[in-house]
Amino acid sequence: MLARVFSCAMIGLEGVVVEVEVDYTSGFPGMTIVGLPDAAVQESRERVQAAVRNAGVPFPCKRLVVNLAPASVRKEGPAYDLPIALGVLIFTGMLPPESANATMVVGELSLDGSVRHARGVLPMAATARQAGFKRIVVPETDAREAALIPDLEVIPISSLAVLFNHLSGRAPVPAFIRPPMEDVPLIPPIDFGEVKGQEHVKRALEVAAAGGHNVLMMGPPGSGRTLMARALPGILPKMSIDETLDVTRVYSVADQLPPETPLLHNRPFRSPHHTISHAGLMGGGNWPHPGEISLAHHGVLFLDELPEFGMRVLEVLRQPMEDKVVTISWAQGSLTFPANYQMVGAMNP
After folding, report:
1. How far apart are CA 340 and CA 253, in angstroms?
2. In sequence order, what are the residues at sequence separation of 6 or more whose Cβ sits closer than 8 angstroms to the Cβ of residue 210?
3. What is the DSSP string of 144-165?
4. What distances in angstroms separate CA 335 from CA 170, 289, 296, 331, one per listed residue?
5. Cα 93-98-100 angle, rounded to 5 deg
6. What pLDDT score does 155 carry?
7. What's the pLDDT tens digit per position in 289-330?
8. Which residues of the chain have pLDDT under 50?
9. Hey, what domains does the chain have and what are their CATH numbers?
10. Which of 219, 205, 204 is nearest to 300 (CA)?
11. Residue 336 belongs to what H/E stretch?
């Protein structure tokens, strides 16, 4: 019996609904995954088999074929483990086919069946709501992040056995209750009150913070350039809820959200070393991920020892500073990441 479960693939900061189909074919027992998977998705064969057995469910002794549709979209990461395992349970008849209706499933499996953190849960939850899904199944550690999206039922799952008991009706898991959006007091890491003297520099930074200007500080070592640059985010205006969600989405995709912090309230401050590569600053890789300038979105990008940065790295900063976005093009297509930041440079005389 063909089983269908829905998951999500990330393309830049946007999600694409992926249909996970599980069926069998002739041949020796095993599992084949098709649909443009990367190495991490291919390795899910071993994780899924071990997790299903350790959940107390016999793994089918057949040649299984798992198709990740649409096949034209590249699938990366281990977040397809849980939907593949759920498809196997539906294929074997342990769960009814309608148990996964209107549900998006995301999560990485351990060999013992426990569900681990998945990258990019916030944009995946937003994609689920836009696509008309009523609920999303996510790892228990990511439930607070997914609950930031309204009008979507979030089911937190700690293991494959818990999901099996929930869908079979033996032990239903209550939906995660979205906590109220509290007015969190902003506590800057460094306060301007800690800076002694340099009144003219502090006044210049106040003008830059009010008008969104870029700044270049030039002075001898020990004059407090780095300290004042780190204090700048503390006097910037408080982020709106839209800006907060934009920044959180970038950090979720980059897998840099701090633990127990589903929503970032402080403006980001990024200070890359001058040896950073072009791809590390602008974003890139085999499958492009956000770079430092996107992680500084709605915040401050601090370039200490500015003349030490490579000429090519400095040249490519010009267009993102004007357009507030960065576009990365490669053989398979192009992606656009946000890059609306204030740049602060520091250098010796």
Report:
1. 17
2. none
3. HHHTTSSS-EEEEESBHHHHHH
4. 44, 9, 18, 11
5. 95
6. 96
7. 899 999 999 999 999 999 999 888 888 888 898 999 999 887
8. none
9. 3-168 (3.30.230.10), 192-347 (3.40.50.300)
10. 205
11. strand 333-338
